[in-house]
Amino acid sequence: MREGQVFEKKSYRKAFGPTADLSDLAKTCVCLANAQGGTLLIGLEDGDDLPPAGQQLDAAEVHKLVQKLSTKSRNVSFGAAVLLTAPNGGQYLEVTVSPSLHVVATTADGRTYARFSDQCQPVSGEDLRRLVFEKSGLQWEIRPVPNVRREDLSPAEIRFFVDRVRTVGKASAFVLAKSDTELLDYYRLVDDHGVATHLGVLWLGTSAQRARLSYGLMAQYVVYDQLEQKVRKATWFDHHLNPAQLLEDVLAQAVELHYSHEIPWGLTRRLVPHYPPAVLRELLVNAFAHRLYTTATDVFIQAYPDRVEITSPGGLPLGVTPTTILHERLRRNPHLALTFEATGLMEGEGSGYDLIYQQLSREAKPLPDVDDTGTSLRVTLRAQRPDPDTLRLLDYLSAHYIFSQKETIVLGLLAQHRRLSATALSQALQLRQEERTRSWVGRLVDWNIVQTQGTRKGTEYVINPEVFAAADLQVKPTLKTIEPHLLRALLTEDLRAYPDSSLAEMHKRLGEELGAHLLRRQLLQMTQSGLVETSGANRNRRYSLVAKK
């Protein structure tokens, strides 16, 4: 099993013997407690599923270990340690760490740590404030609702949920083999005492029962005109719909979000939606599934003529930022997300933003703007009319190649911008290291669909001009894709005619579609090679050709 948000492996040497580091183990336990709890397996090396053959653990030493971990941490609750024997005869220890529901767990010296993906990192400053804020919402979904028992829930809603889980078929065969009653228990809709949880009432309750929830699922849809004055509003405050029904009703009533652009397409016209339906659905599902359910704020959908803004309470989960949202896999409400997966509302592996990026790139649309204030999260989609030539190019490539999700995203970005530096592409793809772009563009370069110019940090990616010719697109030439040696010749001729010019003056003469950073880089290379000389500094720097002797 791979390490993740709720699972960690530690070597035998980390817990026992002269190399033991109990402070590091305590830090790991604090991380798990501040997240959703988890399991710590001691005696397994990273990457191994079995302990070393013949490894034996002393029961007395195991008991002492758990006691020492308790003294080295605060607000961390441990389950009973279980000594397990693997098929190869080796023993290892399973320690269960419960989530700290209302307080922040710390080490004995007062340090706070949290789990970010599979990494344990210190928490301070603004992140500590957010961690305290999120503690109020942790485990809201499985808390029992007083005086609402299994038999009090709506039979129609129970039938809806059970039938949907069995029809969608995303659950494992083991889960689908359970009886209806066992399904409700498995998805934590009812607790061990037969009392409905908040999650159970949200899915299976009557309108009156849902209204008793502290901050249940409510939504508002507001439409604005060109002057941003309100022209229409729809609300869902009566609690008569479960999450799946609410999603469908919002999408049905939000007719303004289903408008389309008409684009000339040969002898006909092609309709391109302002917002791809799959993207809208995914963003609404995310707003429902990952919102904070312990704050009195609704999910807002605000439709403007040029954009739509979807705002949900609670901000991003701790460990996720707007610049890492494409790759991080964290859930604020894991049990609610599990029901959304089982009923077909969302994918289980956290691939929501992958899908959003893919769909927008395929339709030549701008990527979403994500604004996290800490207390709310606003995602903005632009209703931008796509460029017809870009759409034709993407259609042509999709008809002749089978692209992965990553490659579709890269192609959409390059087709829209025509040229992107390795740094700009890494930022758009939210990659920490530019070297990782290889897994995104490797096959595109191998197939000669994308060409590279420059080396290392100066690398730039462009669509191969031959692809436009093969697609029979009468694309207007652009200086964005000019090759370095041609740009050097262009600058040489410009400086020969206009010596002692500034960068801004050359940029204006040669065309503003040509990025200033390209001119600056080429001028630097020409200066270093002795072709150009400069005078002045910074914004006052001027360039001239070096006179030939």
UniProtKB/TrEMBL annotation:
The keyword Nucleotide-binding applies. This is ATP-binding protein. The lineage of its organism: Bacteria, Pseudomonadati, Bacteroidota, Cytophagia, Cytophagales. Coiled coil: none annotated. Gene3D superfamilies: 3.30.565.60, Schlafen, AAA domain. Pfam families: HATPase_c_4 (PF13749), SLFN_AlbA_2 (PF04326). Keywords: ATP-binding, Nucleotide-binding. Signal peptide: none annotated. Residues 4-123 form the Schlafen AlbA-2 domain. GO terms for molecular function: ATP binding. InterPro entries: RecG_C_sf, Schlafen_AlbA_2_dom, Schlafen_AlbA_2_dom_sf.
